[in-house]
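Regression test case RT-17, inverse folding.

Input:
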C-alpha cells in the first residue's frame, strides 16, 4: 500500500538514510520529546543518483526488495502571511516562556545536545534570580560582550545583576556572546540573541547595559547589538520620535555602556549608545531604574526620557545632547540647555556581601569566590589609569570582609577565594583578616589567592595567610628595571625592597615568582631597558644562588608589556613609535637570553598601538569601529586570530580617511589636539 502513495510523507529513502532516521528518532525519544506528527524522511545526500524504495513482498515477509525510484519533488509550501511586530513579539514571548512541548527557548533537547557547553545559555546556576516578568516595572539586561566563561567571572557584572534584582519593581537578566555553534543555531531558527534566565530576546527589555573593559572590545558591543536585532546607532533607534517610548509597544530598548574604558573615553562609541554610566555602578544603576519608572509612568518619548536621565541622574552622559566640533581636539559641548557641561563620574563604596553571587556549572576564567577589600589606590603611579579613575581609596571594614568570605565559601561551595584590590598589600588589615578567615574555616580545605601586589609590602605576615610552599606563584610589578626610572613613574620601590620581597617569597617556599615590567616609559633610555635584564640576573644570583638541586632554583616569569598612554593620567600625551618598541624589545630579548631560569611573555606591539589609537580617539573613530566590525574584526580573538583583526582595522582606518592619524600613533608623534583651536583649548 505504501508503494502506491505519492505524497511527500512517503518520499523514497535509502537503507542508510533509514538507519540514520531511526537513530535520530531514538535520540529524540531518549530526550523525552514525542513528535506530534510524522515527518518526511530525509533524502540521502551521499548517493543522490541511487534512490530506492522499500516494497513489501507477500511471499518473503520482512525482506526488502530494492529498486530505483524517481525523485518526487513536494509542492512548495504556501507563503506564510506577513506578521506584524506585535504578533512576532507575542510568538517570541511564547517561545521564551512555554516549555510544555519539551523545548527550551524554542530549541529541542536534541538541538541543545549538539551545543558545546549548553549551560552557558540556560541561566540555572546556583544563585540565578528568576523574577516574574509581568510584575516588573523596569526590565534590564546586563549583557557582557564576551563569552560566558569570561563574563560570568566579572565581579562588576555579578554585583550589578544582584543589586538590580534586589530592587522592588525591577528585573535584571543576563546575556553573553554566543559560541559559534549557538550562533549558527540562532541563524538557522531566525532567532535573536536571548537572555539566559527569561529566554526572551534582548530587544524585549527596557534597557540593555554592556560593560566595556578594554578599547578593542568596542567591536563586540556592536556584535551584541546586531545579534539582538537592534539598530546600531542611537539615531536609528529613535525612529519614532513623536511616540511614547514603550518597549512593550514596539519601541527599541535603551542601550548603554559602563566600565573603565567607557568611563575613561566614551567618544569612540558615542554614535552607538544612548547613554554612558560613568564611574562606579552600584548606586547609579538603581537611580536609573527609578528614573525609568517615572518616565514610563509619565509617557515620555525617547528623547525626553534620555534628557530626564541626563539631568536627574548624576554620572549619565547622553552623547545625543553633545557635539564634537572640529578643531577642538575631540572636546564635546552641550547642544541642549540643561544637560551638564561636564559629566561627573560616580563614586560608590564596595559591599562584599553583594559579591556572593552566581556559581556556574562550567569552569570559568576565575573559578573562585572573589571579594573586593579595597577600591582605589593612593600610590599615584603616573601611568596607571585605574588608580586615577577609582579615587578616592576606600577600604572595606575588616569584619565585613570576614563575614562575606565565610558566607560565600559556605553558600557557593568554592574551595578557593581571592581578595581583590588594585594593591591588596596596602589594605592594612590584610594579615589580621586572613588569619581570622583561616581560623573560622580551619576545618575546610580552602585556599587564599591574591592578585598582583606591592612587593615592598610583602612580608612574613602576608606569606602566612597565603600558605607558603606549594602555591602556584606570586606576582609582583616592579614596572621598571632601574631605580631612576621607577622614581620617574612614581612607583616608590627601591632595589633593596625588591630584593627583600623576592627573598621573603623564596624563604617561605615559593620557587616561581612572576614579575611585570614595561618598556617605553617616559624618560627611558637603553640603560633602563638593559636594567631589566640586569635586575633579573641580580635577583637570580642573590636569591636563588647556585643551588645544586633543580627544584630549589628560583624561576622568574616575566611579562613585558609596551607602555600605552591612557587618558586622565599624567603620561597621557607621551607616545613611543612601534619601531622604537621593536628595537628596545630586541635589545632586551638578547640580554635576557643570557640569564638562566627566566621565562618571558611579550605583549603585541600592534595591539598596543591600536589600543592607543582608540583609547585617545574622538568621535571620528566611530566610523572606524563600525567598519572594522563589518569587516569581521569581532570574529577573531586577539591572542589567536590577531592578524585578521588587524587587517580589518587597517582597512577601516583607511576607508575612514584617518590613516594619517594612525601613522602618527605608530610613529610616536600623535598629539590629539588638532592645529585649529589649540590655543583656546590649551587655555581652558
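Golden output:
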Amino acid at each position: 500500500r505504501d508503494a502506491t502513495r505519492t505524497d511527500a510523507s512517503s518520499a523514497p529513502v535509502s537503507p542508510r538514510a533509514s538507519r540514520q532516521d531511526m537513530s535520530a528518532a531514538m535520540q529524540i525519544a531518549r530526550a523525552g520529546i514525542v513528535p506530534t506528527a510524522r515527518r518526511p524522511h530525509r533524502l540521502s545526500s551521499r548517493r543522490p543518483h541511487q534512490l530506492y524504495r522499500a516494497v513489501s513482498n507477500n511471499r518473503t515477509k520482512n525482506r526488502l526488495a530494492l529498486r530505483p525510484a524517481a525523485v518526487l519533488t513536494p509542492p512548495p509550501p504556501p507563503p506564510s502571511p506577513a506578521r506584524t511586530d506585535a504578533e512576532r513579539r507575542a510568538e517570541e514571548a511564547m517561545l521564551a516562556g512555554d516549555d510544555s512541548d519539551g523545548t527550551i527557548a524554542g530549541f529541542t533537547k536534541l538541538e541543545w545536545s549538539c551545543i558545546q557547553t549548553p549551560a552557558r545559555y540556560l541561566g540555572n546556576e546556583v544563585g540565578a534570580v528568576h523574577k516574574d516578568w509581568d510584575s516588573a516595572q523596569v526590565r534590564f539586561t546586563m549583557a557582557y560582550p564576551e563569552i560566558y566563561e569570561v563574563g560570568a567571572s566579572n565581579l562588576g557584572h555579578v554585583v550589578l545583576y544582584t543589586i538590580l534584582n534586589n530592587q522592588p519593581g525591577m528585573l535584571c537578566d543576563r546575556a553573553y556572546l554566543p559560541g559559534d555553534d549557538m550562533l549558527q543555531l540562532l541563524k538557522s531558527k531566525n532567532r535573536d540573541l536571548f537572555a539566559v534566565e527569561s529566554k526572551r530576546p534582548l530587544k524585549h527589555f527596557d534597557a540593555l547595559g554592556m560593560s566595556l573593559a578594554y578599547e578593542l572590545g568596542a567591536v563586540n558591543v556592536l556584535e551584541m547589538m546586531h545579534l539582538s536585532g537592534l539598530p546600531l546607532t542611537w539615531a536609528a533607534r529613535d525612529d519614532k520620535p513623536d511616540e511614547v517610548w514603550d518597549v512593550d509597544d514596539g519601541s527599541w530598548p535603551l542601550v548603554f555602556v559602563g566600565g573603565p574604558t567607557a568611563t575613561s573615553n566614551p567618544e569612540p562609541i558615542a554614535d552607538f549608545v544612548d547613554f554612558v554610566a560613568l564611574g562606579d555602578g552600584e548606586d547609579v544603576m538603581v537611580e536609573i531604574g527609578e528614573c525609568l519608572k517615572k518616565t514610563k509612568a509619565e509617557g515620555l518619548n525617547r528623547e525626553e526620557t534620555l534628557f530626564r536621565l541626563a539631568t536627574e541622574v548624576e554620572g549619565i552622559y547622553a552623547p545625543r545632547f553633545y557635539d564634537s566640533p572640529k578643531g577642538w581636539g575631540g572636546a564635546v559641548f552641550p547642544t541642549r540647555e540643561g544637560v551638564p557641561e561636564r559629566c561627573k563620574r560616580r563614586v560608590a563604596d564596595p559591599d562584599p556581601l553583594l559579591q556572593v553571587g552566581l556559581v556556574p556549572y562550567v569552569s570559568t576564567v576565575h573559578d573562585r569566590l572573589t571579594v573586593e577589600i579595597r577600591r582605589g589606590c593612593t600610590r599615584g603611579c603616573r601611568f596607571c589609569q585605574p588608580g586615577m579613575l577609582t579615587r578616592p581609596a576606600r577600604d572595606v571594614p575588616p569584619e565585613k570582609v570576614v563575614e562575606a568570605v565565610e558566607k560565600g565559601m559556605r553558600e557557593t561551595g568554592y574551595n578557593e577565594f581571592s581578595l581583590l584590590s588594585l594593591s591588596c598589600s596596602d589594605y592594612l588589615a590584610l594579615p589580621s583578616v586572613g588569619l581570622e578567615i583561616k581560623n573560622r574555616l580551619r576545618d575546610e580545605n580552602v585556599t587564599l589567592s591574591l592578585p598582583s601586589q606591592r612587593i615592598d609590602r610583602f612580608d612574613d605576615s602576608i606569606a602566612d595567610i597565603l600558605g607558603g610552599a606549594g602555591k602556584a606563584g606570586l606576582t609582583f610589578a616592579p614596572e621598571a628595571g632601574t631605580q631612576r626610572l621607577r622614581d620617574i613613574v612614581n612607583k616608590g620601590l627601591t632595589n633593596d625592597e625588591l630584593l627583600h620581597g623576592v627573598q621573603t617569597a623564596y624563604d617561605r617556599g615559593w620557587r616561581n615568582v612572576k614579575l611585570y615590567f614595561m618598556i617605553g616609559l617616559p624618560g627611558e633610555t637603553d640603560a633602563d631597558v638593559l636594567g631589566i635584564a640586569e635586575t633579573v640576573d641580580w635577583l637570580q644570583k642573590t636569591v636563588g644562588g647556585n643551588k645544586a638541586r633543580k627544584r630549589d632554583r628560583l624561576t622568574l616569569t616575566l611579562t613585558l608589556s609596551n607602555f600605552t598612554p591612557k587618558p586622565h593620567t599624567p603620561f597621557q600625551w607621551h607616545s613611543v613609535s612601534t619601531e622604537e618598541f621593536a628595537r628596545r624589545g630586541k635589545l632586551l630579548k638578547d640580554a635576557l637570553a643570557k640569564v638562566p631560569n627566566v621565562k618571558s611573555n611579550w605583549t603585541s606591539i600592534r595591539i598596543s598601538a591600536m589600543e592607543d589609537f582608540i583609547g585617545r580617539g574622538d568621535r571620528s573613530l566611530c566610523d572606524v569601529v563600525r567598519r572594522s566590525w563589518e569587516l569581521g574584526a569581532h570574529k577573531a580573538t586577539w591572542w589567536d586570530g590577531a592578524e585578521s583583526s588587524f587587517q580589518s582595522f587597517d582597512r577601516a582606518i583607511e576607508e575612514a580617511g584617518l590613516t594619517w592619524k594612525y601613522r602618527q600613533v605608530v610613529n610616536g608623534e600623535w598629539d590629539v589636539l588638532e592645529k585649529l583651536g589649540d590655543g583656546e583649548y590649551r587655555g581652558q
